[in-house]
Design goal:
By secondary structure, this protein is of the alpha/beta class. The chain contains nine helices and 15 strands. It has helices at 12-24, 38-48, 57-62, 78-87, 102-115, 130-141, 168-184, 269-290, 298-317, and strands at residues 3-8, 28-34, 52-54, 68-71, 91-94, 120-122, 147-155, 188-195, 208-214, 219-225, 233-240, 243-246, 255-257, 260-262, 321-322. β2, α2 (38-48) and β3 (52-54) form a beta-alpha-beta unit. α6 packs parallel to α7 (168-184). The longest helix has 22 residues, at 269-290. The chain binds nicotinamide-adenine-dinucleotide.
Length: 336
């Protein structure tokens, strides 16, 4: 029988996930959509031929006719919804962040451990991007020696209303933090975050610069610029003892015209990471059906939010933070 999926949240990300589960992934059926704005859910349901609508996500989670849940509602709603999924013993793919505070994320991880079964996957979809996976495979093959540095760039053309100096670490930088943990397989022990001088166009959206150090001394720098104007540009480079490995964004073609030669840059993350979202959805459905966890765990979600909080603290104090991330519980072993 195909996996009956209930989607909570029919906004930008919800629409994206809904289309993927309804049209691109086998072995599942998008069975119901819940959104606090019922009209919005209704419009999406009509396009995709989904007959069941709700305005309360909790009701959907409690429905025995739904097997698994995808959460794409605002960050502040995630905690209650994920906790209810655990209570109902239902698998859940929750958009990042897992919850808005590390204390809430920790509570989710503890509830999952108490239940004895891995049910939570966090939507850090870059772990399913072929470029990052290729970087990881090349690094782990060992040909180029040990990693020494990692450079990450995260530029967004125009800022979203909810992004400001305080929320960028928890909403945007967490993607870079998670992928750096995933690629290096190491935890961070130090963090320093600063902003540049304000841009004359958007004073509160100055680029942020992060310098993080892993437990064995790999230095990771991250630039986050959410008002970069020209496009959505995500880059990464791993510098090893005898070579470098760089992320190459997928491009169908390049263009030469008007004395310029170049490749298009996507306008947002859905264009750049389309294939990663689809791979993530397929892997999640397979994981729910087989019981073998994949992707970012609740613990990874906890660590990302905890580090995001430390980065906010560093930014405010303009000083380095010494991080004390607890050892990963055996229940979550081998997730990075
Ligand atoms: N993985 C990524 O790269 C990525 C990118 C963008 C957003 N996100 C995450 O996806 C989530 C959704 O973001 P978005 O950009 O789609 O937001 P959005 O504002 O476009 O959509 C949110 C939707 O949730 C609905 N909603 C609000 N409260 C609700 C509730 N209590 N129950 C059910 N529905 C409710 C809203 O009516 C709206 O339709 C956020 O957690 C965000 O951080 C992840």
């Amino acid at each position: 029988m195909s996996l009956r999926i209930g989607l909570i949240g029919a906004g930008a990300m919800g629409v994206h996930h809904a289309k993927i589960f309804a049209e691109e992934v086998g072995g599942c059926a998008l069975t119901a959509i819940a959104d606090a704005d019922r009209d919005r859910a209704g419009k999406l349901a009509a396009v995709l031929g989904v007959s069941r609508l709700e305005d309360d996500g909790l009701k959907l989670i409690r429905d025995p006719a739904i097997d698994a849940i995808v959460i794409a509602s605002p960050d502040a709603t995630h905690f209650d919804l994920v906790m209810e999924c655990l209570k109902q013993h239902k698998s859940v793919l929750c958009e990042k962040p897992l919850a808005v505070t590390s204390a809430q994320c920790r509570q989710i991880a503890e509830a999952e451990i108490a239940g004895g079964k891995r049910l939570v996957q966090v939507g850090f979809m870059r772990r399913f991007d072929s470029g990052y996976l290729d970087m990881k495979a090349k690094h782990e093959a060992g040909t180029f020696g040990q990693p020494l540095l990692m450079h990450c760039i995260h530029r967004v053309p125009r800022s979203l209303p909810y992004l400001n100096a305080d929320t960028i670490p928890l909403s945007s930088a967490v993607h870079e933090i998670d992928i750096a943990r995933f690629l290096t397989g190491e935890e961070f022990m130090r963090a320093l975050v600063r902003t540049s001088r304000p841009s004359r166009r958007a004073a509160d959206r100055a680029p942020q610069f992060y310098l993080l150090e892993t437990t064995t001394g790999i230095l990771v720098d991250i630039e986050i610029f959410v008002d970069a104007q020209y496009g959505y540009d995500v880059r990464a480079e791993l510098v090893l003892e005898s070579g470098t490995i760089s992320l190459v964004p997928p491009n169908a073609s390049s263009v030469r015209s008007n004395s310029l030669s170049g490749k298009a840059v996507s306008d947002d993350w859905t264009g750049r990471f389309d294939a990663a979202y689809e791979n993530q959805a397929r892997a999640w459905v397979k994981s729910v059906n087989t019981g073998i966890p994949v992707g970012a765990s609740a613990w990874d979600g906890y660590v990302a939010t905890k580090l995001g909080e430390e980065c906010v603290a560093s930014l405010k104090a303009k000083s380095e933070r010494h991080l004390a991330i607890e050892a990963m519980p055996a229940f979550y072993r081998n997730t990075i």
